[in-house]
Amino acid sequence: MPRPIEAIIHVQALTHNLAQARNAAPDAKVWAVIKANAYGHGIENSYPGLRAADGFALLDLDEAQLLRKLGWRGPILLLEGAFESRDLELCSRLKLWHAVHCEQQIDWLAMHKTHEPHRVFLKLNSGMNRLGFTPQAFRAAWTRLNALPQVDEISLMTHFSDADGLRFGADGIAHQLASFEAAAADLPGERSLSNSAATLRYRLRSDWVRAGVMVYGSAPDYPGNDPAHWDLRPAMTLRSRVIGMQNLQPGDSVGYGSSFCASQAMRIGIVACGYADGYPRHAGSGTPVLVNGQRTTTVGRVSMDMLVVDLTDMPQAGLGSEVTLWGCGPKGAILPIDAVAQAAGTISYELMCALAKRVPVTVENRA
């Protein structure tokens, strides 16, 4: 039999989570963000659950071509825009909308020969300090774009750095929002402001929201709020089985480096999942897992192909018991990927995107 590990993509959960984005922004259109191969879920796997979106936002031209091959005829937005001038040829052919965040991208547009002008999203750097024009340069960039025959409609966008927490205290995103409103004042065009966190927490008025991690069932502001608070459902389950058992005596160690030593008699299970499957190696003892739907924790270091779970208080568990590393377990049990990520000192995005190619993926359409 094959190694007993698999990832399950829950199509109905994607559909449900997308609806939650629409409920949170009832007056806006919704981009379903499918960059990074749909956050590790697979674009082909995720598309059936997200096709009710008003558009798809991504990064790579290959992803855009795949989406067109899957039958999508609606808007596709390149969130980082063109990376070189010849990318604009494919934008024309595939009818892609694209961000403009620097002067060079405007230069490329000015030299581009096209029969159909492009829809662009002019990006403001309102405080994230990654991509985008400064507030002082924003209106001049808009004026340049507006004068180009290669450009049709100009939409305006920004990206909040702290919508998921309280880095700036009560201010939150207010300083960035004020920066955007001042720079964009009186300029025509649709607005796209909110990522998942801002969509759920602030419910700003805009024409487009960008629903990213929330459509995959993760709470963007965890641990302040968990997915259940926002009525989000896991879109990915990673599960395996117990393939071995050991009984420990006080003082016995577990795994490489003997980082865990038993303080009492213990019963442990060996699980067919390791960092080569995408499970975080830096998840130390105490990371939550489900065994047969019951919550327990890991023990010792995660190795390439295996990890260890504590079965001391689970007399019914044994060889073949189902282990949920994150997502949906038996009998309606759920282990949020956010809880695993927090225990490993990372975020859910990284765990989703790290799913290894060697893990078989099943697509489940049932609710």
Overview of this protein structure:
- The structure is a single chain.
- The protein has 367 residues and is of the alpha/beta class.
- It folds into two domains: 11-216, TIM Barrel, CATH 3.20.20; 236-364, Lyase, Ornithine Decarboxylase, Chain A, domain 1.
- 26% of the residues lie in helices and 24% in strands.
- The protein is built from eleven helices and 19 strands.
- It has helices at 11-24, 35-39, 43-50, 61-69, 87-94, 103-111, 135-146, 174-184, 196-201, 337-343, 348-353, and strands at residues 6-10, 29-33, 55-58, 76-78, 97-100, 118-123, 151-157, 191-192, 208-211, 236-248, 253-254, 260-261, 266-271, 288-291, 294-297, 307-310, 322-328, 334-335, 361-364.
- The strands form three sheets. Strands 1, 10, 13, 14, 15, 16, 17, 18 and 19 form a nine-stranded mixed sheet that branches.
- Helix 7 links the parallel strand 6 (118-123) and strand 7.
- Helix 1 (11-24) packs across helix 3 (43-50) and helix 7 (135-146) packs parallel to helix 8.
- The longest helix has 14 residues, at 11-24.
- The chain is elongated and about 75 Å long.
- The protein starts with 5 loop residues before the first strand and ends with a strand.
- The mean pLDDT is 96.
Nutshell version of this structure?
The chain is of the alpha/beta class. It has 11 helices and 19 strands.
